[in-house]
Design brief:
2 copies of one chain form a homodimer. Chain A is an alpha/beta fold. Chain A has 2 domains: 7-129 and 313-328, ATPase, nucleotide binding domain (Nucleotidyltransferase, domain 5, 2-Layer Sandwich), CATH 3.30.420; 137-307, Nucleotidyltransferase, domain 5, CATH 3.30.420.40. Helix content of chain A is 41%, strand content 22%. Chain A has 11 helices and 13 strands. A 5-stranded mixed β-sheet of chain A has the order 3-2-1-4-8, with helices on both faces. In chain A, a hairpin with a 6-residue loop joins strand 2 (17-24) and strand 3. The longest helix of chain A is centred in the C-terminal third of the chain and has 25 residues, at 241-265. Chain A is globular, with a radius of gyration of 20 Å. At the A-B interface, strand 10, helix 8 and helix 10 of A face strand 10, helix 8 and helix 10 of B.
């Protein structure tokens, strides 16, 4: 008699998109991966409807592909922007969705009649890279997701570390310059205020205000408000001096923040995901050089700094992994 | 038949002094605590001689006080400045003692014919406060020892966290201002460059260079080179405006560094030990206010920031505790 394969569904809820998919419990493959717009402006009930429909769709497609029964699905792992109360399964507040104290885990779980778990999206992305991606084989892993903001997750001794009140890993909101740029969080000099996607675009615009001679302007048809981090990376790849400088500065700022992490937490792996990884080695090479200059040698020698390997699915894979870790014990 | 009490000897090796003492395995009391000058300039063999003699003295005194047999002593925990190779028991380098790759653990252990363990002095101090001091009852603890430098230790999920290569917790060498003051480590803007004892004294001297009207000068007979952090705290207690400002700035810098830790590690306890705790509430009150301004509310709400409760013995108590944790399992 063979043991039937069992499956876990993962959901990655973002401000813009919801991603979902299924994996067998051994994490060997991704099945029925889907993405749909969140439409958070329609309110929490509509978003829960959409999530439940995606889960049912993923289950149906997985059954089609694998011949699984409904009873072969153990449950649903959900990754959500935070802060969260993980044990109660409640989203405390998400500025992008306008939710407060919303019991997302139980709303979704009861709708699809499956056990569910909830964890922070950046934690999920880190655990996804640890379980199946670029941080595989690590034991002490720092994950950063750089997009609209900078999220972070910590894996210590092979387990996701949540801290005393589930907010550990907020690397984006560590100060790299105590009297520096104002951050959306209200603080000054946060890493996120320098190296998030919008911050990269903003720094490029600041340079262009002074020196407008750049192909950046051509790329956006002269409309500076359309400059994004992607535009900057594109211009940098073409050798535009202003864009090259902005990317180099980004590497410097990230290098300062990551050096702090190396000296505090001495990880074996730093995995960086999100839009900025599109910049590739033009970002990673000077970033590693900055870290070598700043962090202690034994910490530098012990650590590799790598781009994520699951750019589209880390959140879903990690949501599956958090369900597995929480409900079935270790990964 | 009663179970015989068993004992562990702790040794706290510093650049200036060696402290030693014994504790029963349940940590309920300190016995035969001693302190002697290190005299590192006499070389490693002389220092090992001195440590071995202190251990024998502690054992003899403990036997006298408790009626214990020699066989009731399980071993020796040693705390030493780092970086260390903990598993091999080797001090990799200590600038203050001039040692390189020195097998301190086995040199001491074989001399007194007892099992020995080695851990970083700042880790020991943190574990001491966690086991028997101000961080008791915590689960995620950040310890800082502020003296000539700023050392740190992390307790995560109730256990000392060492990282991938035993250097985790170097909070003193996290950047709070990427373009700031040069640090002894060669980097710029490290917390230690602002808030260590010598940095506090240096900042006071810088203000005095511009505005010499301060009782600080009276306290040192007009010799600015004699100003120490203690002098600054003393003048601040007497209401001297320049000293008050230097202490407030110190609270600000420490608050920035500690806010970073709260956002990354979300500890339930931050325990601050070392000379600066002499400043008392004039330092702690504005420090806590800075952290409230900067760190995320759930992290602030979850965390108390307290001075150490074992100013003289945290290192020895922690050395005992590291031996117990390593050799007998959890504390």
């Amino acid at each position: 008699m063979t043991v039937r394969e069992q499956f876990i569904v993962g959901v990655d809820l973002g401000g813009t998109n919801i991603a979902a998919g299924a994996m067998p419990t051994d994490g060997t493959r991704e099945i029925a991966m889907r993405m749909a717009p969140t439409h958070g402006e329609e309110g929490s009930a509509a978003v829960v409807d959409r999530i439940a429909a995606m889960i049912e769709d993923v289950i149906a497609q997985t059954r089609l592909e694998t011949g699984a029964e409904r009873s072969d699905f153990l449950g649903v792992g959900i990754g959500s922007p935070g802060p969260l109360d993980r044990l109660r399964g409640v989203v405390i507040v998400t500025p992008n969705l306008g939710w407060r104290d919303f019991p997302l885990r139980d709303e979704v779980g009861s709708r699809v009649n499956l056990p569910a778990t909830l964890d922070n999206d950046a934690n999920c992305a880190t655990l996804g890279e640890f379980w199946c991606g670029a941080a595989r084989g690590g034991r002490h892993v720092m994950g950063m997701t750089i997009g609209t903001g900078i999220g972070g997750g910590l894996i210590l001794d092979g387990k996701l570390y949540h801290g005393a009140s589930d907010i550990a890993g907020e690397i984006g909101h560590t100060t790299i310059d105590a009297t520096g740029r104002r951050c959306k969080c209200g603080n000054y000099g946060c890493l996120e205020a320098y190296a998030s996607g919008p911050a990269i675009a903003e720094r490029a615009r600041e340079v262009l205000d002074v020196d407008g001679d750049s192909i950046l302007l051509d790329l956006v048809g002269g409309d500076m408000s359309r400059i994004t981090a992607q535009t900057v990376f594109e211009a940098s790849k073409r050798g535009d001096p202003i864009a090259v400088e902005v990317v180099r500065d980004t590497a410097h700022f990230l290098g300062v923040g990551i050096s702090n992490l190396l000296n505090i937490f001495n990880p074996d792996t730093v995995v960086i995901a999100g839009g900025v990884t599109q910049a590739g080695e033009q970002l990673f090479e000077p970033l590693r050089a900055e870290v070598r200059r700043r962090a202690f040698k034994p910490a530098v020698d012990a650590c590799r700094i790598v781009p994520g390997a699951l750019p589209l699915s880390a959140g879903v894979v990690g949501a599956v992994a958090t369900f597995k870790a929480q409900m079935l014990g270790d990964l």
